[in-house]
Structure formats: structure tokens, C-alpha cells
Specification:
four-stranded antiparallel β-sheet; 394 residues; alpha+beta
Amino acid sequence: MSKNTKYLLVSLPASISRTNDHDEALTALRSAVTTDYGTVFPFSIPEFKIGTLDALVQQADELAKLEAGCEGVVGKVGDSLKQILEGDESKISKHKTVNDKPAEQYLKSFHWNKVKYRADKPLGEIISILQKEITSIDNQVKDKYNSYNQVKTNLTALQRRQTGNLATKSLISIVPPSLVIRDSDYLETHLIVVPLTLTKDFLRTYETIAPFVVPRSAQQITTDDEFALYAVTTFKKHSQEFVHKCRESKWTPRDFKWKEGGKEEEGKELEKVKGEEEKVWGEALRLGRTAWGEGIMCWVHVLALRVFVETVLRYGLPLNFVCGLVKTTGKLTKKARSSLDASYSYLGGNAFGRDKKGRVTKDDSATSADMQAAGHMGDGGEYSAYVCYEFEIQ
């Protein structure tokens, strides 16, 4: 789906056609938008059980918040897919599907899911089901991606121990066992990482920075591009003081305990965590793909409910309306809306008029607080003469 694509979900009374015919009304909507500004597809919305006016006003407010929540969850799932696929847009777009089809195809052929959200149930109950569903999607994705990030962090730490510099990498395969004093009651071997620029200073002063450092005990084990690794022997009684003085001198003491078979054990642990990371990566990707599609479906059903409730509040009963999905672009959205305003501003009564040149103008003083309280304010808080909701799927 193009990042520049925007949609308008528009509901109009069937009376915009002379015969009150739905097909004619849809044709009138297409003529109002014109192919210059967008393409109009029929959008089918069933009739629901309608409660009191107060209940509808409250539900309009709930649905506005729920729609924002759905959009947020879909965005977060998209971000998770982007993270796990390392920002590869071609791969990401392949996984952003609804029932293995592009989201645009789902929108164009939208039909209310009567199995999951039975239209014969009260509106409040359907809204509650949708709220629980989008919350569940959010929680599942959050938990799985937290698990993946934890495993990935563990793997990165292990890999860093294999490939980092001498200050961070594992020393188990570097330090010869013969250099490490073991099973002594008095002596202890310390492994000290020294920046190459400080090696002369280290060799000149290490014997005197703390008491009871064994003279001439420093042995260079290896070097890399940044550091040199030395083994130094001290009496255990003064080990802590020696370690403290090393840190003050900007030399890094490394914790090290020789363990038989330690190298092989580290290798096995790395392979184990690699396997676990691959497994959780696959699970997170599959869940992200499924959750994105389910999130879109939930979001579009909420949008359909918003249109229905607003249609009842705006046009009244008995219901006789037509709903169309307008596919446009970010640049053409304003022109499409202006074209719709020009054709249907009369539905807004005193809220809209025309200037001397015949252009539609809006009388803000005519849009009362009651309209906003009743959910009649369009996206962005602006009053529209007809029911219209803008959205985009990224």
C-alpha cells in the first residue's frame, strides 16, 4: 500500500438522489468526488440495534477513543515488524496483509463480520467486544516482542563476549591454564587489561601501587588493536587494594576463574541461545503478521460503527443512507473534501453558506457546542455538513 494513500469514509442520506435509490446515491457521491480527486468504492454497513439518544452520544465518544486506540495498536505492531525485519520495507510490506491479501483489497471488499460481531446484539456489547479484542492484540504482541528483545539482548551479550575487545570478550580461550594460580592459600593471579597507550606506565608502576605485589610477575598474554592483557600475581590479603588501584590508574581488572571445559561450555551456550533467538524471532514475526491484519480488521469495524452511529445522530430515523470509501492521496484529500462540501454543504443547514462568488463558506458561529458534545465534529475538531472520517494505513 502506497504511503501516500489516504481514505475518506463518507456517509450521505440516500435523499441526495431524486429517487432515494442507493445505487443512484453512490453514483452521485462518485460525481461529487470526481476521478480527479479520488476513487469511490461502495462500503457496506449493516443496521444495528439502536438505543436511546443519550446512549448513542456516549457511544460516539467511546468509538472515537476506541478508533484512536486501534490506530495506535496497528502503528505499534507495524513498528515491531519494522524492528524485527530490520527496516527492510520490501519484506515489511509483504507481512502487512489482511487474511494474506493487501489491506486495500480488504477495504474495497469490506463486509461486516457477522460471526465475530453479531449485528443483532446491542451496540454497547459490540463495542465492548472490539475493545477487548484490540487490547488482547496489543498485549500479545507486547509480550512476545518483549520476550524476543530479551533473547536478542542475551545473544548480543554472548556474541560480544566472543568478538569484542579484550576489555569485554571472554578470556576462557585466551588465557593459558598454566598462567593462573589455583588452589593457593596465599597467592592470586589477576588479569589486567591495559590500554596500549598506558603499557609503559603499567610496567613501570604495577609493582608499587599496592603492597605485596609479586615483583616481575607481570606477563603479557596477548594484545589487540586497543589493549594489552597482562597476568599479575599478588598476595590474596592485598588483592582488593590492588584491584582498586588498577581501576584508579584506568587499567581494567577482569574477573576470571579457570574452569575445565569452559570453552566448550561457552560454545554450547552460544549455540543454544542462537537457536532460541531464531525460534522466538519466527514466533514474533508470525504473530506480528497476524496481529497487524487482525488490528486492521478491528479498526475498520470500529470505523464502520463510528459512521453508523454518526449517521443516526446526523440524519435521524428512519435510516436510509449510502456509505462510500474514497481512495485519494495526501495532496488531494483537501480538494476531495472541498468538492464534497460544494455538493453537500446544504446538509449542514445554517453552518454553511456561500460567498459572492458562490464558493462554500463555513459559519463557525453556527456550529454550537451541542454539535461537538453530540459527536458531530469531524476529524480535527471541524464541523462537516456530512459524515466523513479520514484515515490512512501505513
